[in-house]
Amino acid sequence: MRTSAPPLAPVFRSMLQGRLLALVLLRPGEDQTVTDLAHRLDAHPATVHREIQRLSEAGILETRRVGRTRLVRAGTAAPYVPELAALVLKAFGPVPILTELLTRLPGLDAAFVFGSWAERYAGRPGPTPGDIDVLLIGQPDRDQAYALAEEAGRIIGLEVSIVIRSPEAWASSDEGFLRGLRDGTLIPIRESAA
Fold it and tell me: Using CA of residue 95, residue 101, residue 104, residue 107, what is the dihedral sign?
């Protein structure tokens, strides 16, 4: 007896699909074009279109046409989309992307996400953040750090703003800004080995 595939069968078929889900599900209510998604994923539009079609058939994504443009957004019909978005956040969201990119940055002792994005990640309610704030502790090359932040922003689809502080400044907590960060929500990307 042949049975149909379960609705979640097309989920996490590939890294491309995971990153596509992150771009769409982590911005609920926002329409995005297939062309923009393909560009941000650095993938051929036809490939992205096929993935979107599979996910739409499962109710995970919704699409609509406006003229010749196909718009994509997070699905609202499937009851498991909120839980799937939470899983996608942990597996393909900014933290794993930043973790991977920052392994290429020598001179980095620790790194944390802070600010409104960290607050939403920790489950605190509020508006969807427009950027991601990252604190780098160490002596990294600033040009390389800013280049990696730009690359991360392109992949994530949000501006990544970085703040660099020395290990001594972080340890002393004399700076009011750093004291405020310590009192707020910090999501570790890379923790100090010391």
Answer: negative
Residue 179 · residue 153 · CB < 8 Å: no
DSSP H or E segment with residue 97 = helix 94-102
> In this structure, which CATH number among 1.10.3720.10, 3.90.700.10, 3.30.460.10, 1.20.1090.10 belongs to the domain 93-190?
3.30.460.10
For residue 180 the two structure tokens come to 């405020």
Q: How far apart are CA 10 and CA 91, in angstroms?
A: 16
* Amino acid residing at 142: R
Instruction: Determine the 3-state secondary structure of 150 from DSSP.
Output: helix
Digit-coded pLDDT (tens) for 137-159:
999 999 999 999 999 998 888 89
**Does the reported pTM lie above 0.85?**
no
